[in-house]
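Hello forum,

I keep getting stuck at the same step: I have a sequence, I want structure tokens, and every attempt I make locally crashes halfway through. Rather than fight my setup again tonight, could one of you with a working pipeline run this one for me? It's a single chain of 292 residues.
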Amino acid sequence: MSNPRFSFSFILSLLIEILESNSSNTLLSQYFNIFSLVLYFSQILSYFAKFGFDYYDEKLSFLLNVFYYTNFANFLYIFQSRSLLIFVYVLVILITISFYLYFILLSFLQLYFKIKWKTKALFKIINMMIAAFFKVFFWMFILPFLEILINPLNCALEGSFVASCSEKFNTIFLIPSFITSFLIIVMGIMHLLLHSNYKFLDLHDINLKLNIFSCTGFLIRCSLPLLFPLVYQKIFILIILMHMFAFFSLLNFVKNFPIRSPVLNPLFSSLLLSFEMILLTMTFWAYFGVLL
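Reply #2:
Ran it on my machine without issues. Output:
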């Protein structure tokens, strides 16, 4: 039997081992899953706050502000600090790159140095953190991370995290933003791919699995911060994308039954329906002045 070789599939197998060995079904994680699902949909609705519409209804305006700050990156808008933006920007890049470098390191230790990292206390602690981060990242931090990477590229837009900047300032961020955004999207697809593994089928968790519907919905979700600077004057494109996200999420839910928990499954369907109803309400109010 041939020895395993360093490859992307080998890194994925290591990630599966870490996720499987650090999974838990505690009451705390159940509450956390509920919170994650609420943020999952709220962060997408946060982009309505950037459209510049006048919502004269106080309740709708308040709700919109709540959605806006569920995308954690938008707290940077309050400070309007270039230094803070650069610090958080670099931190996002370091976190993303460190995730990949860690698994490359584990692969080399296991394949070429025959080190049994699973028995080492330090690696056990790091693996627990990695497993928690990987789960939290997909549901709560993909959009904020992408927002932090993309926002500095065009700080002339409403909702920019800095008050003013130059073309040179924008250009500095271009290449790092492109590379890191790509790595983040790959991490999201890895999450979908790994949770298609049979080992995760019986876990009472929020584990979307890789298929055409979940992948399309995920890419649409990522496209919101990526496309926002390009189609800011044609916001109907982003609104259509939001409705498409709801449509593909519904198809995935009906066809593939992605969340099997008796608690989280009805919650997901309720949040999805609420998401579409709020989206329709805001769309009609923004374009027709009609509050459904």
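The chain has a mean pLDDT of 81. If your local run keeps crashing, start a new thread with the error log.
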